[in-house]
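FORM 12-B: Structure-to-Sequence Request
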């Protein structure tokens, strides 16, 4: 399949900062064909992820470790948290913003944040089945379990601890 005229132009202008500053405002995916220098330009990448968080995929590793860039990207598309640096996967502000948009972000969060009740509640509220990636301590937390069961009933029951499955409040939620 031949490249579109836009892709051809992006490839030809891969080092042209002004071209990409304007282009990403309307077609952020074209950042894929930019030079490494352009992909490391915070101003351009911020413009791209403001329009389409998925453009983060093509940002430099340095910018995937930039909190401003990550917050903007996950605000547009929570799933883009998967591209975050390890440092930002352990940043509670970033993880909370990501889980608000897509509970699946918990899967990529640091081990410590998968054991943070506020983070887990945010993720479970958005995507109850993600409970399976919470720490065992929080899968044994009644508040977390109640939220998950209230949202998804049988889909999450296997991910809460056996003793909570026998809890009367949990049973009542399952039966209603």
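FORM 12-B RESPONSE
SEQUENCE OUT:
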């Amino acid at each position: 399949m031949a490249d579109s005229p836009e892709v051809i132009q992006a490839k030809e202008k891969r080092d042209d900062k002004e071209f990409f500053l304007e282009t990403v405002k309307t077609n952020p995916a074209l950042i894929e064909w930019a030079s490494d220098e352009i992909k490391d330009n915070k101003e351009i990448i911020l413009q791209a992820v403001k329009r389409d968080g998925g453009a983060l995929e093509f940002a430099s590793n340095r910018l995937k470790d930039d909190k401003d860039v990550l917050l903007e990207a996950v605000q547009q598309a929570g799933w883009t948290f998967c591209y975050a640096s390890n440092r930002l996967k352990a940043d509670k502000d970033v993880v909370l913003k990501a889980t608000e948009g897509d509970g699946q972000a918990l899967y990529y969060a640091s081990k410590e944040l998968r054991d943070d009740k506020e983070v887990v509640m945010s993720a479970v509220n958005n995507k109850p089945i993600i409970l399976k990636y919470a720490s065992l301590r929080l899968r044994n937390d009644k508040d977390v379990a109640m939220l998950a069961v209230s949202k998804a009933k049988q889909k999450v029951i296997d991910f809460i601890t056996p003793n909570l499955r026998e809890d009367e409040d949990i049973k009542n939620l399952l039966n209603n």
